[in-house]
Amino acid sequence: MEGVLFWVFGALAVAGTLVVILSRNPVNSAIGLLFCFFTTACLYVLLDAQFVAVIQVLIYAGAIMVLFLFTIMLLNLETDIKKEVTSPGTRILGISIGSGILFEIALLLWHYRITPFLGTYTPEKLSLTGNIQAIGRSIFRDYILPFEILSVLLIIGIIGAVVLAKRD
Amino acid sequence: MAGLNHYLLLSAIMFSMGVVGFFLRRNVIVILMCVELMLNASNLALAAFAQFSNTIDGKVIIFFVIGIAAAELATGLSIVICLFRNRETVFVDEMNLMKQ
Fold it and tell me: Which of A9, A62, A147, B70 lies 20 to 30 A from A38 at CA?
């Protein structure tokens, strides 16, 4: 069952990504991005990362999509569909770089079976103590300095956004 | 049953599609969306590694990536608004004032 769900959600995520990069209208791209974030949240649930899935829906599909849609509607873009795509030279360059990256990773995965070093957080232990508890303990014990730095970074981001977008 | 390699391949597909979109589009808002797609794909790889190696660190690092993505996007979109106010365009190859 889990394997079937992986293929379904994987196909849907790739479809959402295709909508983002191929649709000529920025609003349709934003809706495709929203769809892609939702299916990624479903994949997180399959990976036993329920709290990450909730955060994904709240922050990515909620806050970040609101930012995108507000900006698109605030700018009142002219709907000149023909101007949305770059010149053929840049297009060929981009497609070759993208398929090159994909080819390299696929080659690596095909020839080299990754056997990770196994840690102590087995699924049984996580279901006993709870995913959120373990993540919270890890954030506030092992990752407390990056956490504080991230909060400073977010404040700087907010101040920067206000200063830049202010009409003077 | 989907293994680690399946998730990593899916993540690689989404990442490379983000790269292609980055080069394919001229609208700077859609280019920022493609950057978000790439970050999202790397998050998926982190979650897969965390799950299949019985660790929790990958799932914690996803929070930091999401926070950095939010900060980057707030600043980036306000720069876009600023540019649109001054230049009346959102297409990247028309933002070439520094070249002239």
Answer: A147
CB burial of residue A120 (10 Å; 0-12, 13-18, 19+): exposed
CA distance to partner chain B, nearest, from residue A62 (Å): 11
Could you please report the per-residue DSSP string of A110-146?
HH----PPP-S--HHHHHHH-HHHHHHHHHHHTSHHH
Task: Provide mean pLDDT across the span B14-41.
Answer: 92
Give A124 to chain B, closest Cα distance, Å: 10
Closest by Cα among B53, B36, B46 to A43: B46
Q: What CA–CA distances, in Å, run from B71 to A56, A67, B27, B63, B77? A: 15, 11, 20, 12, 10
On chain B, the residues whose CB falls within 8 A of the CB of A114 are: 4-5, 8
User: What interface predicted TM-score (ipTM) does this complex get?
Assistant: 0.90
Which residue from A48, A72, A118 is facing B29, i.e. has the nearest CB? A72
Q: In Å, what is the CA distance from A80 to each residue of A31, B20, B89?
A: 19, 22, 12
B95 CA to chain A: closest CA distance, Å? 14
The answer to whether the CB atoms of A114 and B82 lie below 8 A apart is no
3-state secondary structure B16-55: HHHHHHHHHECEHHHHHHHHHHHHHHHHHHHHHHHHHCCC
Check pLDDT > 70 for residue B75: yes
Q: Which residues of chain A have pLDDT under 70?
A: 76-82, 168
Give the number of C-alpha atoms closer than 13 A to the C-alpha of residue A39, restricted to the C-beta side.
23
Mean pLDDT for B10-14 is 95
Residue of A nearest to B48 (CA): A47
Full-model pTM: 0.90
The alpha carbon dihedral of A51, A138, B59, B56 has a sign of negative
Q: Which residue has the tokens 């859609």?
A: B30
